[in-house]
Amino acid sequence: MSKIGKLLFVGGGRNAHNLIGIMEGAGIEIGDILDDRPSGPILGRPVRTIDSQDGRSADAFLTIADPVAARAVRQRPALSGCRWPSVIYPNCVGSSYAEIGEGSYVGPFTILTNTRLGRHVHLFAHNSVGARSEIGDFTVIMPGATVASDARIGAGCLIGTGARILAGVIVGDDCRVGANVVVRRDMPDGSIALSEPAVISPRRRASER
Question: Is the pTM of this model over 0.70?
């Protein structure tokens, strides 16, 4: 992990609360927190609006765990001057052959082999990602979930706590996998698997609800 300046958190929800102490444990200094609805300090850090950043330069990190919201916020003009370093927790076991995109987070007790992570991927803690696997931009992998070798997960996915993506499985873009679900077969774009054994269903658009 390259040297990171005081890190600006983008997003003031529960994930910001989770990550402040964890990142401080990795020796990273946390600065201000940006949120569209500031409601007072978070663990002593001032919270201000995202637009108040106004394109100024800063090392920044997206703390937003919802892939759709995170992608939208990342495109905000107020953040155009930000740099997005990746954050890799010191006690991870990481292969030198792993490729890690900007703004990604590899949390405590995670194992990375020769895998490829896109931009703003979050591996929260106790994750294992197997050889030759790929995880797309803005995908969130919750604690304890594992991705086996040769699996591919698309962009904008949310993989629940303790879920398992088996070897060679392809998970399309914008998919949702529930907690402790084992995904044994491919999932098309925009599908969900929320029960065990996994039943893969299309997600409904807002207009269909």
Answer: yes
| Same domain as 191, residue 94 | yes
Residue 2, in any domain of the structure: no
Q: What is the pLDDT of residue 206?
A: 43
**Exposed, middle or buried: residue 208 (CB in 10 Å: 0-12, 13-18, 19+)?**
exposed
pLDDT at position 2: 55
Q: How many domains does the chain have?
A: 2
Quote the pLDDT of residue 209. Answer: 41
Q: CATH number of the domain that 45 lies in?
A: 3.40.50.20
Helix, strand, coil tally for the chain in percent (to 5): 15, 30, 55
* Domain range for 161: 86-196
Assess whether 47 and 91 both reside in one domain.
Answer: no
Q: What is the DSSP string of 158-201?
A: EE-TT-EE-TT-EE-TT-EE-TT-EE-S-B-TTEEE-SSS--EE
Residues of the chain with pLDDT below 50 are: 206-209
- Identify whether residues 78 and 91 lie together within a single domain: no
pLDDT at residue 205, as a whole number? 52
Residue 141 is predicted with a pLDDT of 98
Residue 123: partners with Cβ closer than 8 Å, 6 or more residues away: 104, 105, 106, 107, 110, 112, 117, 129, 141
